[in-house]
Structure prediction request, 314 residues.
Amino acid sequence: MLVILTKSKQMKKTTLTLLFLAIITGTFAQTKVIDMHVHSYSNTDFGEREPATDHYGVKGATDAQSHRLETVAAFKKLNIVKAAVSGNLDSVEEWAKNDPENIVIKGILMFSPDDYGMTVQKFEQLVKDKKIEIFGEVAPYYSGGTLSDSIWQPYLKICEQYDIPVAVHTGGGDPGGTYSWSPKARLSLGDPYHIEDVLVNYPKLRMYLMHAGGEDWPEHAIRLMAYYPQLYTDIAVLLWVEPNTQRYVTNFLQDIKHAGYLDRVMFGSDQMIWPYAIEKSIDFLNSLDFLTEEDKEGIFYGNAARFLKLETRY
Ligand SMILES: [Zn+2]
Prediction:
């Protein structure tokens, strides 16, 4: 059928065709996301207690499997293509075993270097066997130390040797934690400057701060990233856990954009046992008008892809 279209009709047709193409090729799907901060659990982590509620009164997952399945569903819904998952070794393995899309990057949650009966030899073997692909979340903060303490050094040496990224907790912990489960935790230990010696002693180590110094030390995070151009950070937990942390992370992102280091900031959720918080974190980041689309693409995906050497690893 021969149809002569007026210019505007032609344009309409072109628009419709593009729209159709966009829908079938998925161009309108949300940008790809890498979540640099996810935790896995075993049922022993949940116990018999009522699930904890977050700041907003939302109850957390009740067991390890439902937590994992809800999180995986969120990965799918939100186009999360890679996630740095840390927990005890068994829980991480369980996630990796049920990961047909190859999303999981295997981390390990450690507060002390001898957690899970770990030794330096065992650690090196786990790295060689690709059971540990990211060393972290390491959080000496909770056990009253810092990553610069001598007991951590053999682990860091191995990470540098095998090019394993290190993910270190910075900032404070859960309010009141020092009175309950982490009696040695002190706010001052969350200062990112405590890892400066690590950056000096292992210049080839790939390292990222978790929580960007938290509410406590955002400026120290920026200064450290200025002085050590290989250092990255995530902005996990701050994006959702309380209105107050959202206030801090908004300021942090404005400041670090102004400073010129936004291309080393990576998305992370740290949803803990609240899988809904991944979407909440993404929505919050998307709501920040001072970030351009390009800035957001970098934070959600591009910066982490570069940090992880995604093209050649995993
Ligand atoms: Zn965490």
